[in-house]
């Protein structure tokens, strides 16, 4: 299997605020605690998308809502 590496974007404190808000909204919509395994997987996916270069809050929320993930090695 081929692995693609991409330059990862640094996660700023402003980005953390946005990512937390998206995750909190996702948890509220689905009735998950932010400490649950499901929210942990979703948080990792959010970070992956952000590091991949998706920085728009609405786009990140849509990717998470639609459960679109970047494959991890």
Notes on the protein architecture:
With 73 residues, this protein is an all-alpha fold. α1 (13-30) packs parallel to α3. 59% of the residues lie in helices and 0% in strands. It starts with 12 loop residues before the first helix and ends in an 8-residue tail after the last helix. The protein has one domain. It has helices spanning 13-30, 37-52, 57-65. The mean pLDDT is 87.
Count all strands and give the number: 0
Sheet of most strands? none
Distance between the termini: 9 Å
The overall pLDDT average reads: 87
How much strand content do the residues show?
A: under 5%
Task: Indicate the percent of residues in helices.
Answer: 55-70%
Low-confidence stretches: none
- Rg: 12 Å
Shape: globular
The total count of helices amounts to 3
Count the domains: 1
Q: What structural class results from the helix and strand content?
A: mainly alpha
| Helix-strand pattern | HHH
Secondary-structure blueprint of this entry?
Layout: H1 13-30, H2 37-52, H3 57-65
Give keywords.
single chain, 73 residues, mainly alpha
Short description:
The protein has 73 residues and is mainly α. The chain is built from three helices and no strands.
